[in-house]
């Protein structure tokens, strides 16, 4: 395939269509426009079949996120940025580019997630773990409670 000379302007294409409608031949139009007759013929053919002079837009790629997902992500980012008002988006991206590695960040986040999962699964620690509960004695003369340490193992 040979190298292209460049795209033809839309005004030039419209001029070719106008001359065609006036009854000029393809060879005569190609001499006026100073383009190859095959190029002029292709422009006329496209106009007659599709009725279009401009370039056709390319089909957009499939979206990764749905609209609901995008709204959810925007809400999350806004809530995180509201918690940290001193750092803005560009500043955080600059700090990220300077010194951190994405692999390190992922490793750190995984460790944090594992720690949180372990903490949530762990039962709540009681204050007397491994020791027997204290004995409470009530003195009959007063209403004060007296705590004694129990030194005997259970």
From TrEMBL:
Residues 80-112 are annotated as: Disordered. One of its GO terms (cellular component) is nucleus. Residues 80-93 have a biased composition (Polar residues). InterPro entries: Homeodomain-like_sf, WH-like_DNA-bd_sf. SUPFAM superfamilies: Homeodomain-like. Residues 94-112 have a biased composition (Basic and acidic residues). This is Paired domain-containing protein. It comes from Trichonephila clavata. The lineage of its organism: Eukaryota, Metazoa, Ecdysozoa, Arthropoda, Chelicerata.
């Amino acid at each position: 395939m040979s190298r292209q000379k460049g795209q033809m302007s839309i005004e030039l294409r419209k001029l070719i269509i106008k001359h065609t409608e006036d009854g000029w031949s393809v060879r005569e139009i190609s001499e006026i426009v100073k383009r190859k007759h095959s190029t002029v013929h292709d422009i006329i053919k496209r106009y007659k079949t599709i009725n279009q002079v401009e370039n056709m837009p390319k089909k957009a790629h499939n979206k990764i996120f749905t609209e609901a997902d995008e709204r959810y992500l925007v809400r999350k980012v806004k809530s995180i940025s509201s918690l940290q008002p001193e750092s803005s988006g560009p500043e955080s991206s600059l700090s990220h580019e300077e010194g951190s590695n994405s692999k390190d960040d992922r490793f750190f986040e995984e460790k944090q997630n594992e720690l949180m999962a372990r903490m949530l699964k762990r039962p709540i620690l009681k204050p007397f773990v491994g020791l027997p509960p204290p004995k409470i004695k009530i003195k009959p003369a007063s209403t004060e409670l007296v705590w004694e340490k129990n030194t005997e193992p259970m």
